[in-house]
Amino acid sequence: MHSFADALNLIDYSKAEFNVLKVEYARSTEHKKITIDLPAKIKNFLENLRSSLDFCTHNLYEKFGDHTNPPKIIYFPYAWMGATEKEFVKKVEICLPGIQSSRPDILALLNSYQYYYSPANAWLPQFMELTNGSNHTKLTLQTVNDVEQLEIDPGVAATRLFIRGGGVIDMGANAAIRSKYGSISGEQSINLGSSMLKNIQGNIKGEMNMHTAIFFESNNEEVIFFLESVLERVSSISNDLASVH
């Protein structure tokens, strides 16, 4: 049986592999051609991270599950896009029988990672779909225009930035949103909820950076940023689960 230590060792291994992937990714974007090994390396990287979650799940079952009728397959439970919380709980009972009754706190923890719990969790079903056995890691090259700097001069009115449909603004470690009265900075996510507002007031000036990037065909996420995000979040979940007593 794999232990929590095995799960965390896989995380450490994946962190080293991510540095190798970044070099391969940079080579592909520089030459505007996806190297022959990149899709396989990405697939292996993602599968190792999923294995880390599965190892943690095995340990949770061994410690707290009902062993009267062991499941044929034990795996990290997740809600596919469109699934309800009720459907997720049923899935937990299948792959982790007994957890709901013996440790409702663990069920609550697992529930907190699901896509319906927070918009910031949308990565989980995307990640899981990429690691399903029948799926291939299909990649596409795209030309991207990034806004390196955006200035909004509101004139007389207050500055307002609206994004239709809401969503999440993910900020990197060196990013900042500044105004006359204060700033938001540092690595964090800003949940925009379900806003339906749609316009920017004020004069806009921006600096654009055009570059080549590689995206997953299935979810149109930029590969290198998605992989980095998944690594951080799987690491966080694995450490959470390893700390359960």
Task: Characterise the protein shown here.
There is one protein chain. Strands 1-8 form a two-stranded antiparallel ribbon. β4 and β5 form a beta hairpin. With 245 residues, the protein is α+β, with helices and mostly antiparallel strands. It is 43% helix and 21% strand. α1 (4-31) runs antiparallel to α2 (38-64) and α2 (38-64) runs parallel beside α7 (223-242). It has 2 domains: 4-138 and 218-242, no CATH class; 142-213, no CATH class. Residues 194-200 have low confidence and may be disordered.
Can you give me a brief rundown of this structure?
The protein is of the alpha+beta class and 245 residues long.
Q: Number of helical runs?
A: 7
Largest sheet: 2 strands, antiparallel
Structure class: alpha+beta
Instruction: Give the termini distance in whole angstroms.
Output: 18 Å
> How many strands appear in the DSSP assignment?
8
Helices and strands, in order, run as HHHHHHEEEEEEEEH
The low-pLDDT segments are 194-200
Task: Determine the mean pLDDT.
Answer: 84
Rg of Cα set:
21 Å
What percentage of residues falls in helices of 4 or more residues?
Answer: 40-55%
Beta-strand residue fraction:
15-25%
Number of domains: 2
